[in-house]
Each structure stands twice: as C-alpha cells, then as structure tokens.
Amino acid sequence: MARRPKNRCVQCLPRVNRFKPAGMPLSELEEVVLSVEELEAIRLKDLEGLEQAECAVRMGISRPTFHRILVSARQKIAECLVMGKALRIEGGDFKLYPKNYYCKECSHEWQASFKMEQDDGEAICPNCGEEDIKPMDPRRRGLGGPPWDSMGRGPKKGWGGPQDK
Fold first, then answer.
1. Phi/psi zone of residue 139: left (φ > 0), alpha (ψ -120 to 50 degrees), beta?
2. Per-residue pLDDT tens digits for 17-26
3. What CATH number is attached to the domain comprising 84?
4. Number of domains in the chain
5. The pTM of the whole model exceeds 0.85
6. Which residues of the chain have pLDDT under 70?
7. Residue 110: which domain range?
8. Where would I find the H helices in the chain?
9. CA gyration radius for the chain?
C-alpha cells in the first residue's frame, strides 16, 4: 500500500483559479489541473527566484520532492500554453501556514488572518496602529535566527571562521 503524501506548506491560496485562452469558450477547451502545491513551487522558484533548497525548506519537503513538483507544474503550464488548454488550480496535499508579522515601532509580533493575507491593502499593527511592519520568515520565531543560521558548506562557513553578515 502506498504511503500518503506529506502535507506541503503553502503560504497563500491563489486569487484566481482558472486561466484559459482568450476568445475560446471554456466548454470547448480541455482542462489541465494544477495543484495548489505545484503553484506554490512555481511561485517560490520562478517568481521569488529562490534556490531549490530554500524552496524545499519553505514547503517542508525534501529537495528531490520539490524538484518533482516543480517539473510537473512546469510541464502542465507548458502544455496549456502550447496546446491552448485551460488551466484550473485546485486540490493537492497542502496546509496553509499563516504569515507572521513584526511591528518595528512596538516590537509586537502576530499572525495574519487569512483575510489579511488575501488583501493587498495596507497592513497595520493591531497593537499600536503603526504601518511600518515587517513580514517574518515563516520558519523562524522572531527576527533573529539560531546562532548556527549562517553555517553550512562553502567559504566562510562553520565554527571559528569569519562570518558574513
């Protein structure tokens, strides 16, 4: 029996869930279904320009799994563009994680409601009303990371060497 796929972390749901070629009725088009986690992979890699390792960490999956999801998403999008098919975004194995925000004025931290994440309007601190807020990395608590955050492979990494800051 196959294992159930692990839920992938997704930052937000799409604002629009269907795309189709202009001038063609949807009833006459074949549809290709893109899962929400495939859209998230495209967003992280192609829109935000992150490395695959960072994308995988943000989605809570391994790098090979992220690569498979990304390849699948790109194939589906290419099929729609080249063959003139409609694209529908729905379903998948994912969990929505809320965005965390930090107020620079009063140091208040909070999680945004789903409605706030969907709005493009001005976000304000619920504690002091300040508009100078900063989104926090969803993998960390607070602004600072652990002391081992800057370590890893490569030049100037590890214990005892000069650190990039």
1. alpha
2. 999 999 999 9
3. 1.10.10
4. 2
5. no
6. 98, 113-123, 137-165
7. 100-136
8. 36-42, 52-59, 63-83, 114-118
9. 20
